Structures are given as structure tokens and as C-alpha cells.
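Help! Submission page says 'invalid entity' but I think these are all valid:
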Amino acid sequence: NAGVTQTPKFQVLKTGQSMTLQCAQDMNHNSMYWYRQDPGMGLRLIYYSASEGTTDKGEVPNGYNVSRLNKREFSLRLESAAPSQTSVYFCASSDTGGDYGYTFGSGTRLTVV
Amino acid sequence: GENVEQHPSTLSVQEGDSAVIKCTYSDSASNYFPWYKQELGKRPQLIIDIRSNVGEKKDQRIAVTLNKTAKHFSLHITETQPEDSAVYFCAASRGGGFKTIFGAGTRLFVKA
């Protein structure tokens, strides 16, 4: 039982490059999330997927897109990376919405130069 | 918009002492309040949570209290140990909602 698996763990991009962060969970959770973590700012929600087939914007969606590929997988895409997107990205899942705690992935440390 | 304020940002205690972290939330419809612990370089992990129909919850050395009228909730760690050193995040969400709001975090140092 792996929980929430994120790839890659580290990535360096040049400004303007694109990439996709992958996330998969094996807990049969309905809801999945992408957060970014910056020093002193806690965790900020980028996008979430309440259930398979739906996605919605969080606090800081600009510059990102998401795809809920199936119940297990939720990917985050940066179409044209900017230095302001340098951050640690966490994927998370929960059983149903905000009623339950999250299980987080191990994170992706992204640097945009 | 909704926000969660967390204090202090840094807390240093001696091993064996108690530590208290406080949070205030703005959305009066919030009814689920989890706490996460994040060790250096690791993922946040849920350590305890409380729902709005409960005033206090304990799990061994940790406890959480909730005052819905004042929109405050707190984490209490007793008999602190060096392995309690980490960043702690409080959070608040609405039941059935999907936008959990996190506090900015408290870095706890437990000195041996």
C-alpha cells in the first residue's frame, strides 16, 4: 500500500519550459488536490478534483492546468514555467472533500531558472 | 476570503515542557479542523483532528481544543520530546467542501 505517489521528486526547468507532475493514489479516495508550499506561506491550494471527472480552481491556479485521468491519477501541468513557480508541490487525496484529513505525497521540489 | 492565522511562527521549548500552538479561522461555516506535522524534508502528516461538535480531543501526548464561538482552536503537546521537533500546520474546512485552508505553520524546536 503505497498511499500517494508523486513523480518526479526533483526537477529543474528553464523559464518557458513545460512539464507535468504526476500523482497517483491507491486508497480509493474520491478527492485529490495539488498544493504548493513556499517558505512562511503554508500550503496553498492550486487545483482540486472533488471526484473523478471534475476539477476546480483553488487559491493560486494561474499558470497551471490539471487533469483527473481516472480515480487514481491527478496530474498538474505547467505550460510555460516562470521563476515564481519555484516551489515544493504536494499532491494529496482524501476520502470525501473537507470532512477528512489528507494523505500527502512526498512532494516535488521544482526550481525554475 | 477565508483565512487561518497561526501563532507563534516559531516555538522553542525544553524537553519535557508543554507546547501550545494557536489558530484562528475566519469562516464561521468551518467545521473540521485537522493538524499536520511536517518533519524536515518530509510530507505533512495528519496527527489529530477535531470536528465542530466536539470541544476537546486527546491522543496520548497531544490534544486539540476548539472554541467555535471565538473561532479559535489550539494544539497542546505535553512532555515534549526531541522527535516532536517539526513544523506544525493547523487547517480549517467546511464539511462537504473541498477548500481546506492551512495556517502558515509553527516551527517547534524541542531542546534536549
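Support: the input was valid. A stray whitespace character was the problem, and the output above is from the cleaned input. The mean pLDDT of chain B is 93.
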